[in-house]
Amino acid sequence: MMIDQQEYYIRGLSYSIRSAEEKDAEALSSLRVQIDGETENMDREEGEAYIDAAGFRRIIHLDTEKSRNLFLVAVVAGEIVGYSRCEGTELKRFCHKVEFGVCVAREFWGHGIGKNLLEKSIEWADQTGVEKMTLNVLASNEKAIELYQKSGFEIEGILKKDRRHTDGQYHDTIVMAGSETNSIKSEEQ
């Protein structure tokens, strides 16, 4: 699915959010490795589960064709600095929901990029009849949890000792979800 590009100016930074295009594949491949190495909040360590440019081209192509998928990028001065993805399924028992994920390069934290990627995804979900968005977040990522809760997401569960980081410590994962009703309620508050 594709959306129209939107421009933002927040805390001195101009950026746009638009649908990913196949020409973005090389930049996305590099950015994913970079972001995985910048924070423990991601599921992967740097270089793990590597997706090359051809792999990203396939993902973008499929996401563009599928009505239950959305792949967005955030662009600053022509450079992709973050992205988000909603992925649905064709299985009838689960076709009412999508899974959401987002990541932003550390240098660009604090400019509302993650928040705006989430808001555009919620807007798309509401417009296309998606009834539920789910996501997983590291339990210690309090800023992300707060953002998701402000956007109408609720905690549905905790996966205890779900991850083990390079320091050998185990960490919990929080499972959250937002429904069409929750996102509308959030906007009214």
Protein architecture, described:
The protein is an alpha+beta fold. Helix content is 32%, strand content 34%. It contains five helices and eight strands. It has helices spanning 25-38, 53-65, 113-128, 142-150, 180-188, and strands at 6-10, 13-19, 70-76, 79-87, 97-104, 132-138, 154-164, 170-179. An eight-stranded mixed beta sheet has the order 1-2-3-4-5-6-8-7, with helices on both faces. The protein is globular, with a radius of gyration of 16 Å. The model is unreliable at 181-189 (pLDDT under 50).
Summarize the structure.
Helix content is 32%, strand content 34%. The protein is built from five helices and eight strands.
Number of strands: 8
Q: How is the largest sheet built, in terms of strand order?
A: 1-2-3-4-5-6-8-7
Biggest sheet: strands, sense, closure? Answer: 8 strands, mixed
| Number of alpha- plus pi-helical segments | 5
Helix content: 25-40%
List keywords for this structure.
single chain, about 190 residues, 5 helices, globular
Write the layout of secondary structure elements.
Elements (H helix, E strand, L loop, with lengths): L5 E5 L2 E7 L5 H14 L14 H13 L4 E7 L2 E9 L9 E8 L8 H16 L3 E7 L3 H9 L3 E11 L5 E10 H9 L1
Parallel strand pairs: 5-6
Antiparallel strand pairs: 1-2, 2-3, 3-4, 4-5, 6-8, 7-8
